[in-house]
Amino acid sequence: VALSRQTRLGRESKETHALVDANQVLAGMGSPEPVEVQPGTVAVGKTLAELRLRGLTGATVLAIRRNDESVLVPSGHDRLQAGDVLALAGTEDAVTAAKELLAAPEAAHS
After folding, report:
1. Secondary structure of the chain as H, E, C letters
2. Does the pTM of the predicted model rise above 0.85?
3. Which candidate, 79, 76, 97, 81, places its Cα nearest to that of 33?
4. Span 25-38, pLDDT tens digits
5. Which of 19, 38, 88, 97 has its CB 3.0 to 4.6 Å from that of 57, i.e. a possible disulfide?
6. Within 13 Å and on the Cβ side, how many CA atoms surround 93?
7. Is the CB of residue 64 less than 8 Å from the CB of residue 71?
8. Please, which residues have CB within 8 angstroms of residue 30's CB and are 6 or more apart in sequence?
9. Please, what sign has the CA dihedral across residues 14, 16, 20, 23?
10. What is the CA radius of gyration of the chain?
């Protein structure tokens, strides 16, 4: 019984430590910021991988809201449409750069 209790306490301690680490990392990302994909911009019709948003800006798309549907933790294969609302997270500079990239007119990126 003592070994079982000791193992459980060790596991709880590791889990608590992991949560504290995750919260510290996430705190540096700021609050998620909504950004709507506008018609005629470079983002329309592109996948997240094609946009290379994270690689170019450092911002992360945490979710996509489309009409009444939500995609949590979208993959690089998710294709954006006009009217999609992206939940962006990252440093202030990263989110600002992502907004600029997403707002670029289609011709500017071709």
Report:
1. CHHHHHHHHHHHHHHHHHHHHHHHHHHCCCCCEEEECCCCECCCCCEHHHHCHHHHHCCEEEEEEECCEEEECCCCCCECCCCCEEEEECCHHHHHHHHHHHHCEHHHHC
2. no
3. 97
4. 555 556 899 999 99
5. 97
6. 2
7. yes
8. 89, 90, 91, 92, 95
9. positive
10. 19
